[in-house]
Amino acid sequence: MSDGHEHNGHEHVPSRQRRRFPGISSRTYEHPADRSALVALRKLSGFDTVFKALSGLLPERSLRLLFLSDSVRVSDQQFAHLNVMLRDACYILDLEKVPPMYVNQDPQPNAMCIGLDEPIIVVTTGLVELLDEEEMRAVVGHEVGHALSGHSVYRTILLFLTSLAVRVAWIPLGNLAIMAIVTGLREWFRKSELSADRAGLLVGQDLQASMRGLMKIAGGNHLHEMNVDAFLAQAEEYEAGGDLRDSVLKILNVLPRSHPFTTVRAAELKKWAESRDYQRIMDGHYPRRDEDKDTSVRDSWRESANHYSTHVKGSKDPLMKLVTDLAGGAGDLGDRVRRGFGGFTNASPKPPQGPQTGPSDSSGDDRPPRDDS
């Protein structure tokens, strides 16, 4: 547990007793897909050299100067309560160098961790005003988790390439090439957000606060009008509802996003919080940073593949059910697809037994998705 003493220059420790994780490796909380990609990148010969060379092309120095000149830097004198949270988060996750944090005037609730050489954390006024202390603590832990995992490097590149894609949109082939890379980075980054949510929970150690924060990002500051169980039920309905057409629409809706849908994040975090892995971490059994050099790329890829296999088999999504059934040799592809787009709702099609007793349920919410932080 936190002992209340200064460590690595951190003068502040959590305001209530929270477990601390000395020497914790980011592999502890990283989503399998996120972890396997990062391990592979870190093992590449010359990877650091390439990105240091690339840093000369990226407007990182300009970005740092922009925040320094036009935002408020968190310190003991400015947004002191956020400074305490930041130091607490670094203390709990044993991140020795506290990254600078800025508050940026923006009514849209958002936060990010960017930077190639050194990470910087930015939170908007909309987020600070929306969340209470424990909810904000989870967000700060989320961003410190990004810093510990090295996500800020890839996030910066993603922001740069997204901006570049807009500038060269008039060049058909050039734009397509860049967007292909951006799409891949977005897929990785969505998984990295699930990793950072876990880091936020390790810092805040309050699942209900993490759930409330995600609900507020989705529905605003109307907590008395919302319910965690009902919010999680939305995620269940989202995954299982509709037919194959809805499955395709889900994929199309998520492609342009850098973050997973908020209800999905909440459901994923709750599932992890209830897992044996989380309990082992809280009991002090977790990978250490000094063991990272011995990490096997093959083992990480195998773990990632196993995760996806388990996810597909356990998914209630109509498309995932179809994939599972076809992989098991059940049914004819053409027949299954015809049934799917005609109202596919069951894992195994059944022969007609006479007149239908009721209409198939294929209703859904057609409102456009919102890109939350």
Q: Count of DSSP E strands?
A: 4
What summary fits the major beta sheet?
4 strands, mixed
Mean pLDDT: 75
The low-pLDDT segments are 1-14, 343-352, 354-372
What general outline do the C-alpha atoms trace? Answer: globular
Describe the strand arrangement of the main beta sheet, using strand numbers.
Answer: 1-2-4-3
> What proportion of the residues form beta strands (DSSP E)?
under 5%
Q: Helical residue percent? A: 55-70%
Descriptive labels:
373 residues, mainly alpha, four-stranded mixed beta sheet, 16 helices, 57% helix, globular, disordered C terminus
List the helices and strands and how they pair.
Layout (H helix, E strand, L loop, with lengths): L31 H12 L3 H9 L4 H11 L1 E2 L6 H13 L8 E4 L6 E4 L5 E5 H6 L2 H17 L1 H17 L4 H33 L2 H13 L8 H13 L3 H11 L7 H12 L2 H7 L14 H18 L3 H10 L5 H9 L32
Parallel strand pairs: 2-4
Antiparallel strand pairs: 1-2, 3-4
Describe it.
β3 and β4 (120-124) form a beta hairpin. 57% of the residues lie in helices and 4% in strands. It starts with 31 loop residues before the first helix and ends in a 32-residue tail after the last helix. Residues 1-14, 343-352 and 354-372 have low confidence and may be disordered. By secondary structure, the protein is mostly helical. It has 16 helices and four strands. It is globular and about 50 Å long. The relative contact order is 0.12.
